Amino acid sequence: xxxxxxxxxxxxxxxxxxxxxxxxxxxxxxxxxxxxxxxxxxxxxxxxxxxxxxxxxxxxxxxxxxxxxxxxxxxxx
Length: 77
Description:
This protein is mostly helical. The protein folds into two domains: 1-32; 41-77, no CATH class. It is built from four helices and no strands. It has helices spanning 2-13, 17-31, 39-56, 64-76. The N and C termini lie far apart (39 Å).
């Protein structure tokens, strides 16, 4: 089985990016056995809340470069 998985991975990595993304999405969906009925609504609410915080200036946005550096600093501790 391990060899078969390695061969599948090799073949998958040879696919174009769009096909790899579709494959990943399908594999992740296959692992999700339980459905959280309220998850979609909860994410919508969270997104709206964060957009309001950004629009009102309640939160400070930082660049991806700064965020990445902060994460690296945190992991280095």
